[in-house]
Write a structure and sequence with these properties.
By secondary structure, the protein is α+β, with helices and mostly antiparallel strands. It is built from one helix and ten strands; from the N terminus they run H-E-E-E-E-E-E-E-E-E-E.
Length: 151
């Protein structure tokens, strides 16, 4: 047998080994990376809330950058937070959204909203903080009446 024959066999075996390694790599379980995002719903001016009004926020769980819907048997439970202690948060029954109520007399210019949950792999994921600009509310006018005798 010639050296060319053996060289060709070794070349083909090397190529076969490379292909087997690639297949084994493709069969390795992929590690999921869970993240989350928070967005403000139904708003005319993104990120703005007038003092004395509300804003609705919803969080989304992401697996490797794509939205993940967990089965009803293991729903994602969200906890919402706000950097402004005067803002009240009322979370929906299924925790998919929360209404942030800003008091009329809030003098702040902005707040940070966030949400966190436990991902399917047991890690806690928190959304990056969403900065919400506060627009001052209008002061309610106080009206009164008086009566005086003129004659």
């Amino acid at each position: 047998m010639s050296n060319d024959f053996f060289r060709e066999v070794y070349r083909r075996l090397g190529r076969l080994e490379h292909l087997v390694e690639r297949v084994l790599h493709l069969l390795e379980p992929k590690t999921a990376v869970f993240t989350a995002v928070l967005h403000q719903e139904n708003t005319m001016a993104i990120g703005n809330i007038n003092a004395g009004s509300t804003g609705t926020f919803a969080a989304t769980l992401l697996e490797n950058g794509a939205p993940l819907t967990t089965p009803p048997s293991t729903p994602t439970v969200w906890t919402y937070s706000c950097s402004d202690p005067t803002v009240t948060i009322v979370t929906s029954a299924d925790t998919t959204s929360s209404v942030f109520s800003v008091p009329q007399n809030d003098t702040g210019t902005s707040f940070q909203a966030a949400a966190s949950a436990v991902a399917p792999d047991g890690t806690t994921v928190t959304t990056p903080p969403l900065t919400v600009t506060l627009t001052p509310g209008t002061t309610s006018a106080v009206f009164s009446a008086s009566i005086a005798q003129t004659a």
